[in-house]
Each structure stands twice: as C-alpha cells, then as structure tokens.
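Narrative of activities, Objective 1.

The group set out to show that a structural description can be obtained from nothing but a protein's sequence at a throughput compatible with the screening campaign. Below is one input-output pair from the validation batch, recorded exactly as produced.
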Amino acid sequence: MKNVLRIALCLSLCIACVFTAAACQNNSVEKEPILNGFDVTLPDLSGLSADKYFFGYDEDVDADEDLVLKRLEEDGITPTEDGWYPTLIDNFDYNADYADNMGLDPDIWTASVHGVRWASQDGKHPEYACYWCPEMVSVSGDGYAVIRSEYIADHDCEECNANAEFFGGSGAGRYTGGFETRIETPLTDDEGNVLYNESNDRPQTDYRQDEYLFRQAFGYFETRIRLPRKTGMWSAFWLQSSYQRMVDGSGADGTEIDVYESAFLSGNDDVRRMGHALLWDGYADGAQSSARVFDLGDNDLYDGNFHTFALLWTPEYYVFYVDGKPYWATDDGDVAKVREFLRFTCEIDAGDEWGPHGQKIGAFDHDGGAGITEIDYVRVYQKLDWLDDIKDDSGEGEYSPQN
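Output recorded for this entry:
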C-alpha cells in the first residue's frame, strides 16, 4: 500500500509540475512592450523615506481611509500629493534577533512550505527532486536576503529527509527555498489533533484557512534582485491569493501575479528576456492564465548586477516593469480585487529541464556550486484612492485544492 501511495503522490506532483509550466507557456517573444493604451507612469514616491517600515496587517484598518491616515500620522508619515504611502519596506539589514527565522523579520516573513516542491521527473534519479527548506534562506551581513539553490548529497534536515525517504531517496536532492507573508495552518480534528497525510506524513492544510502576516490589494510593488547565473533553475517574485483556487471564470477573486520569473539563462540569446504571468481559477480543471515574454534589448539580467522588478496593480489593470521600464500592461483575468500575500521563491529543475513560459532551462549542475539569489529590498506602497475598491475574500465558486 505504501508503494501505491508513493506512486500516486509522485504522479500527482508530476502532473502539477507539468500543468504549472504549461499554464505559463509562451514560446513567442515580444520585441516591443505591450501597453494596451493604459497609463504606465511610475508613481512619484520621491517624498517618502526608503527606511524600513511596516504598516502592519489589519483588515479592519487597511481599507478605511480615516483609520489609515490616523495610523500614518501616528507613525510620522505623510502621504504624497497623489495619495501614495508605504505599507511594507524591508531592506533586509542583518539583525541577530531574527536568527530563529532565517534572519528575516518574523512579524513580516515566514518560510515557504517545507518539503518536496517537485518530485523527480526521472524515475532512475530520485535525487533530482526539488525541495524547499528554510535552511536554504538567510540574511547576509551585507544586508541581502539570500536563497541558495544547490545539490546536497547529505542534507541533514528531519523534515526533508522524511520526505526523501518517502520518495525512495536518501536525503540527496536539489535544495532551495523561499519566504513569504503567509502562514499555512495544519488542519485538526474535533479534539484539536493535527491531521496528517498518509501518503507523505506531512500535515494536511487547506488554503482557505491560511493565516497572514501581510496582504494587500492594489498598489506598487518593487524589488531589487541579483539573479543567479546558473542553468536548471529560476527565481521569482510573486503575489498570490489563497482563493486563487476558486473556479468561477474570473481572477477578480484571486490571481497569481508573477512579477518576474527568471527562466531565461539557457542559450546565449535568451539572457535578455523576461517573463510575466497571471494565473487564476486554480491549477487544475478550469484553470486560466495569461503570460508574456519580452526581449529586453541590451539589458542582460544575468550580468552580476542588481536589477529592479516591479508591479503597478490598479483596480483596472496591471503594469509590469523591469529596471523602471514598462513592458506589459493588461487587464486580463478581470484584475484581482482581493488582498494577496507576497512570495520570494526559487525552484530547480526536477529532471526534465523545463521551466515556466515553455523555456528549456537546461540541467541543474550538481558540481558547479550553489545558485545564489540575493534580494536587496522589497518596497510596497498603497494609494488612498484605491481603498474603496478592495474586496474581501468571497470563497464562492468551486474550490480547486491542486497546487
């Protein structure tokens, strides 16, 4: 029975992996920005401080202009003339008090779900499985959040090793990780006992019962990142709603918003490309998506320098920017109207050498050292004019639990 369960889970993970890649497939490359007539002017934030700031997460406050202004006044912050104000600014400065949380501020961040991210796509090599582990995330003394991606033959982590044993491995695998502003909560029985999956001994979770450290609907989201120059992997900054999996034909109740996915290193002429994507109605039956890949001209994102990736999310449309230049403005999916949490993640090829946007990303090198993704900062701002447009999670439609 254990072997049957193992095969079933492996198949389900493989299907999820294939679908996720397929959902974002777009082999065509746009030579020019697609702006569709929308106003893509970057917000003027010059009058606001870039020092660390956290407005906090309180849905009783964040959509009420009077309460927002009261809190900002208490914090000594004056919105710009256009109504912009900061909600989350983290420069990832090293703080020893955060050592138990990967070096990250525990009031804002938690580790992405711990365990197998993708089962191996090669039956002869279970060590090709990709794992997310908090041990792969840290904050450097230079003030960067760091995600390491590497093959480890003797990874010493109880949670990861338990999953490896289930998949027929021995702890050897491709390890990376992520951090986000959501906490997944295990399900419990009527007596409060945690429920576990028989298939892999991990706690059962229901995305509709997630807890949040921070979420926001609409605004301007910017990060500055140095991408790893390593094939067979990609990094991403994305927004997600737990109710993205409600299947109702619209993304207004939750859309995965991929501000960037760095799956374009393989091939000499591919390094000057970047992809952006929107996914709604889950990842199984009824799932929908829209994605674009752009030629960035002479802008090599893998040149060893930091680059900025940003999203302007208005109630009517999205705009995606790379190094301050708008590339895609769209209202596909009806535009999400609900609060969404933030995610920084890396993922590694699990043996098939394919990544998002239909990209052949190449094999992950086990001997070439770790791929290092460095995040310099994340800055999130809100606009007073858009607070009335925020909608609460509806929970309507058919729920799709597939990840």
